[in-house]
Amino acid sequence: MVSIKGSRPVFSSPTRKRNQNCFSLVRLKISEIKEFLKKNLSRDRYIHTLSLRKLAIRLAKHHGLGLKDICRVELAALLHDCHKKLEEDNHSFLAAKFVKKNFGITDRKILSAIEHHTYGHRNMSKLSKIIYLADISEPKRLFKEAKHIRKLAFADIDKAMAAALSTKMRYVLYEKKQLSLESVILYNKILRNSIK
Ligand SMILES: [Fe+2]
Ligand SMILES: [Fe+2]
Known about the structure:
The chain is mostly helical. It is 65% helix and 0% strand.
């Protein structure tokens, strides 16, 4: 379990109410989690994480998520890439395990959002989709489709998911790697729903 000396349930991030909700999900201050990340992530990964967090919270508010879900979004955003073996294809699952073991986070919505941020999942929640979209399109992402996906994420989450999944799958095919079955199933499901 990550323990930081002298930690108290006094919070430094935007609203006290939101932080009280966060405290029921993880017994650490957001500033303490950031301190841990700063020490353990590369500089680029840390910058990506903070940028993703900002976009994910904006998306969560924009799409009407409640206070507790906004806290979940914030925690999933901060911790989604916290595992050291980031180059591994299953790093999102390793990160979820790490978060459970070391931060004591057992909330299913947070763990699923972390698990699904790389490939998606056929039954993804809105909260998980927000993390997936923020991960692929946060402003530090410089590939050409990122801006379009980011814009679409505010207008229509599922259209943005279809655009994000097809961008990622095109890249995977270009790299001659295997497609994730979950990504394909989710993509087909969104397409089917859009023509109903
Ligand atoms: Fe990741
Ligand atoms: Fe990431």
